TrEMBL record:
It comes from Priestia aryabhattai (Bacillus aryabhattai). It is found in: Cell membrane. The chain crosses the membrane at residues 12-29, 102-125, 137-160, 172-191, 226-252, 280-302. Residues 98-299 form the ABC transmembrane type-1 domain. It is a multi-pass membrane protein. PROSITE patterns: ABC_TM1 (PS50928). This is Nickel import system permease protein NikB. The complex is composed of two ATP-binding proteins (NikD and NikE), two transmembrane proteins (NikB and NikC) and a solute-binding protein (NikA). Its main location: membrane. GO terms for molecular function: dipeptide transmembrane transporter activity; nickel cation transmembrane transporter activity. Keywords: Cell membrane, Ion transport, Membrane, Nickel, Nickel transport, Transmembrane, Transmembrane helix, Transport. Belongs to the binding-protein-dependent transport system permease family. OppBC subfamily. One of its GO terms (cellular component) is plasma membrane.
Amino acid sequence: MGNYILKRIMSIIPVFLLATLLTTGMVHLSSVDPAEAYLTAAHIQPTDEILAQKRHEFGLDQPFFIQYANSIMKICQLDFGISYVSNKPVWDEVIYRIPATIQLAIVSILIAVFVSVPLGFLAGVKKGSAIDHFSRLLSFFGASIPSFWLGYILVFFFSVKLNLFPVEGIGTWQHLVLPSITLALPLIAMYTRLLRASVLENLQQPYVLFARTRGLKEKTIMTKHVLRIAISPMITGLGMNLGKLLTGTIIVESVFSWPGFGRYFIEAIFNRDIPVIQCYVLIAASLFILSNLIVDIVQMYIDPRISRKEGQHR
């Protein structure tokens, strides 16, 4: 078990190095000159002399691999450069904004889990029942409706018409309700269908028949055996979507004027704020790697066969 965890942690290193290489390479190959973008954001007329000075200051006149090595050294020190727009360290700006995104992502994940687990489980156990049909309808609706449209619909009915929740901003739990539901509904659709299909598959497995033959209670079989194994695909999806939520809440943050990391990234794209864009890409890659590592460890404890299979392949 310890060797499996160590192997997974060691596999992070080449992935992270590849992410930094791609990020540095995109800047190197981009048609946008970082020095010109900086001067434009600072409202300074770019001349050849000033451009050459800024390129030297940013290290852009050095060979690519020297730029790459310098980037890794700075990243290890959490130095992502200075924002072209605010003229402040990018990491300080990220630390200021990312808690709002984390708060929104965690609440959305909790809503999705608390709704989809019982709904998907009951839909699988009671196939063809009313709750199964309801889960299908909810899943189709959640998977097909665009997030930005759902956000505007929720704002129109619950904020403009009924005046129950704030239209935008952050501060109280009321501000969290509408953006969290907007993010959670597609996840509920995905997790409900995954869990339902997994439950139906596991109900056909021999271990369920053996458990019934041994005289175990149906409730025990369903909760301690079927649900424990069937929830594995959902946990995998949860790990993928956790990284996505922490870095990809761009549309929802824009609709609800949520001062998070995703909205900051959109502003950086419009302003060609390259240090912010680089920081976003690296943080996104790191969060996906970390969330998948956590999911692998959790799945290993839920289903010890995973670590045994890994041992057999070595």
